[in-house]
Amino acid sequence: MRLPIWMALLATMPAFAQKRQTVTSNVDKVTVFLSGAQVTRSATTSLPAGTTTLVFQQVSPQLEQRSIQVQGQGDFTILSVSRELNLLKTQQKQEKVQQLETEIQVLEEKLNRERNALAVYRHEEEMLNKNQDIRSTQNGVKTADLREALDFHRARLAEVLDKQAQAAKAVLVTEKELKTMQQQLVLVNNQHTQATTDLLVTISSKENINGRFTLSYLVKNAGWYPQYDLRVKDIKHPMELVYKANVYQSSGEEWKNVKLSLSTGNPSENGTKPTLQPWYLRASTPDYQQLNDVVVVGYGAAKRIRGVATMEVAAAPVKAEFKEAEAPTVAVSYSATTINFDIANPYTIESDGKPNTVAIKEQEVPALYQYYAAPKLDKSAYLIARITGWESLNLLEGETSIYFEGMYVGKSQLGLQHAGDTLQVSLGKDKNITVNRTLQKDYSQRQFIGNYKTDTRNWEISVRNSKRDAVSIVLQDQLPVTTTKDIEINRVEVEGAQQDEITGLLTWKLEVEPGKEVKKHLKYAVKYPKAQVINLD
Description:
Layout: E1 2-7, E2 19-23, E3 26-32, E4 37-47, E5 50-59, E6 69-74, E7 77-86, H1 88-130, H2 143-190, E8 196-205, E9 209-219, E10 222-232, E11 239-249, E12 255-263, E13 303-305, E14 308-310, E15 330-334, E16 339-343, E17 347-349, E18 356-365, E19 368-374, E20 378-388, E21 398-404, E22 407-414, E23 422-429, E24 433-439, E25 445-449, E26 452-465, E27 471-478, E28 488-493, E29 498-499, E30 505-512, E31 517-529
Parallel strand pairs: 2-5, 3-12, 10-21, 19-27
Antiparallel strand pairs: 1-6, 3-4, 4-9, 5-8, 6-9, 7-8, 10-11, 11-18, 12-16, 12-17, 13-14, 15-16, 19-20, 20-23, 21-22, 24-26, 25-26, 26-31, 27-30, 28-31, 29-30
């Protein structure tokens, strides 16, 4: 007994005078990577004594040749494995197109005959109507002859109208058949039919036996990407996370009722470690740019204003106890570099490139909820869910649909690269919290002293809570930051805000009771040369 024999010998075999036997195989399991997939097929067949080439048909033409592996169980020897192109599907499509075109031609000829018959009957009706005036001769028309003529006219007209109705009905029926056939032709022509691959496995057996085969190979044009639903009933309840995968493939073969395994690996990526090369420094003359403007640091991603780099200062992480997730609906396995989700229920994935939604798991995730507002940029309050211990959720970056208090809020992107210890998820705007930032003109002024002028700004920032419960909100604004000695920032009043001396970022952490409003004031004065123009609003 020769037990599992794995072979990856793919040399093209010359055509010998040996038996060929077609074997029907089924796709049992597919491991879908972020790009590409590994397909596993199985088959059981009777093997005659001697040398036989087994032909496994309907295999994807997108397979990677070097990835083919064949395992055999039984008292036989696998001599070689090769592949050849099978154009049967393409030929079948061409034959179907020719058949439809012939049927369409027959229907068009039939339709022309029926339309001609309808035209003849309509012409005869016109002639009968024109000849209904029977003129008298010199001696007049006998009553009997007149009655006979009228009877003939009536009978013939009735017959013509009846045949006309039948012909019109036949035209409609044939037109409908023709339209259906034309639509079918368009459908067949639009089908992406490609040649398939036949795997040829040559075996040698001393006697008639039964053998079992397992074939596996990698295919292109397949993959999956994550998608999430985040549902929050209210800020008193944990977040419900629905983890889904969109699986697609256009490999040229159908995966029908197969066991799916989703892997975070990507076999198409380069697996070679990077190598550092020598770093040679070369001197050059720097080109300095005169900086006479006030640099203002805004909330958002790192950016550069007039050559000065600025960066957002992240808030301190909030600690929360992360409860163990519920029993997963899939089995999760880990390797050194990847995570696999083994889906319990079988799925059918057509070879049409369309995404198929596959459920991975649903679970409740403890979260701390906090509102955030930066009214200088947007007079809205955003609800932020802060999750610690998120690494155990096995998440990937992907699109997220957000639902809050039973309403669909919109879509967002789950970003993980800069999450740190705490993953922050924006749940969208809450219209029950009103934020305003108003310039107090009575306290804002401009003064001129010598070659300098001083601009004073006084802002009132208010937060009103129209919800039934108290809310915690982080309110942020900023002070201008000077980059030259000619510009001075003084008479600063921030009313209890935490101030970052480097970036000028101001942070208030407020608790706002239901139905209440909290106001904060920001005041500063900027002294600068009269010849310069600075935007302080």
